[in-house]
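Supplementary Methods S3. Complex input for the 3,4-dihydroxyphenylalanine-bound model.
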Amino acid sequence: MNKDQNLDTTKKQLASDLNSAKQSTDVEKLREQYLGKSSPIQKALQNLKELPAEERKAAGGKLNQLKQELETQINDKLTALREAEYNSRLAGESLDLDLPPLAASQGYLHPVTQELERIVDIFQRMGFSVQEPFMVDDEYNTFTALNIPEGHPARDMWDTIYLEDDNLLITHTSSMQNRVMSSKQPPIRTIVPGKCFRNEATDATHEHSFYQLEGIYVDKNIKLSDLIGTLSEFLNQYFETKVPIKIQPTFFPFVEPALEIMMPRPKLGGKLDLENFNPETTDWLEVIPCGPIHPNVLKEAGIDATKYSGFAWGMGLERLIMIKRQINDLRYFHSGRIDFLNQF
Ligand code: DAH
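Predicted complex, serialized as structure tokens:
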């Protein structure tokens, strides 16, 4: 048989097959049929080695040329069909600009963000400015500048996650105290809301990542009563009622004396019930650790501790939000559970 004629009919046959192909998937099938592993052309290429050496080169050249031509025909058709398919899909996907938006499709803020905005707003109205912490910081700002020297056992109060370069993921927003105080002149009123990290086992009241809000107030003549007044007013505004508080001593190296503001603990998953409030029988919950700033911390930030005094606090935001929104497990916040998030 005349080989050239044979090659010629293959091209013609393909051209007619391609002509009747309606979809890109039809073309893919033709590619398999004409160029795939068991196609006549592949078989012919494999059989080349059986030809006498002097014929091999010319026959091989012809076969490869044919193969390329078939490929070009197939690719051209495929491109044309794909373009047509794309255009017809686009035509079917018209956008109705007059349609009212679906509420859910716009998304909404995470409950922690919603509450954080409220909390920040309360402090801003009291005259506090806002600064964000560094999530990765050094030991100096996280501990040393806060009256916790290297090797001091108080560092063990925080289960810190250290990084390979000796920096760390901040365990508390107090890490910004020194920077805030050394970069401003009193009066200083700043809050630092931010994410903190601890190497902790998680349970209903503990998470490895959580939000804190630090507050720093430095001026002349700042007294304990200023601290109590400010933070108690914050609680009243946040819970939209007069919140009874109790104060107990605790220990933090950067404040002296260290105090803990407590408020009535609502029943698990229940509302804060102040109507039947009885201070004797109420279960109290620590919500805001705080205290007058230790003179060593003021000095380290370049503030004259004989002229100025101040107070600081650092509260866990999720805990407050749990009380306000009657949530009984802290782990929901990071769970990404749609049924939880949809309630806010
Ligand atoms: N940084 C402390 C902690 O994580 C909380 C704290 C306590 C902050 C007392 C303060 C403070 O500013 O005065 O656990």
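The first helix runs from residue 3 to 20. The chain is about 40% helix and 15% strand.
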